[in-house]
Give the backbone structure.
Amino acid sequence: MHVLIWVQHLLGTGHFKRAAHLASAIAADGLPVTLVTGGPPLDWQPPAGVELVQLPPIQARDRDFSALVDLEGRPIDDVFWAKRRAKLMAVFSRTRPRLVITEMFPFGRRAFQRELLRLLEVAAGFRPKPWILCSVRDILVHKSSQERYAWMRDMVLTHYDRVLVHTDPKLVPFGLTFPHVEAIASRLVSTGYVTASPPPPRQMNGPPEVLVSTGGGRVGAKLLQAAIGARNHTRVARSPWRLIAGINAAPSTMETLRNELPKGVYLEQHRADFPALMANCLLSVSQAGYNTVVEGLRLGRRMVLVPFESGLETEQRVRAERLNSLGLAQTVRELTLSSGSLAKAIDAALELPEPKPATYDLDGMARTVRVVRELLVPAPALRVGERG
């Protein structure tokens, strides 16, 4: 009973991290998993039971997602797409999965229908037919055309058995950003937020730090620079501050920041023990990506959120505004980000009560595993063409 998971990250690493968490949890439950990734390679070692397959990588050319390119910055042509499609289908034929999960698609990654529609069509004719699931985060990027939402709805109704929405509806109902919830209600499952198991808190040497992070790091330089300037204008100016630039931060960005660091501010590109840093921090200052925000909720940290906004990107802004409205974070819009606005938000966040993790559904991994297991439980013999 093999499980196949497809995921594509383009700019940050959040999509891959969420899919990797799910793959690891499903494998730990005893089901073999093949995780097929199509973004730039990441330094992640799959655990026992998980096979990692790398498709020819595709990434976003810039922060505006203006085009898809390969690792050398060249546009993606039909030959490149054909190579990816062939490799994906070879993996499907070899593993013969009983259950397929597409991360985000069809609620995003529409450009990748070039390979995924073929996968869905072949799966539909496979015997026994595999279960088809979508794994999707809490918030969708706003679409200017209602036709795009209708296309998502129709894709679900045509191809998908379940849509696993990794959210707690008390915090962010899926209907907040998807208008056709009622049409697909029989296939929707709110799993709770997906996050790693709590690490044992590691007591840091010295006083608690202000932790400033930017996820993958390709678009976080402005936040880090603003944090350096904000420090002396906050009530925690004497506390140590630690800046995590992200594994994709450009060398030029790292050099510039190092030249600006005052005493008591530390800059690192990556920390494998990031959850432990957050567990022990005085305050988390970050963008509003899914994984970092959920970590903050899970660990009960006060947060300042500076959502990434570029072009048509609205997901992080919606998440930040939602948490702000619930009193769970302070927010600074990217357009108004400065040392002054960030310092003001930091002082305001320090007055917030710490979030209580037990208040929110953070059991998304376990719930997803239960859904997968329930679908794959052996059933009585079925008619030809039905699942069994």
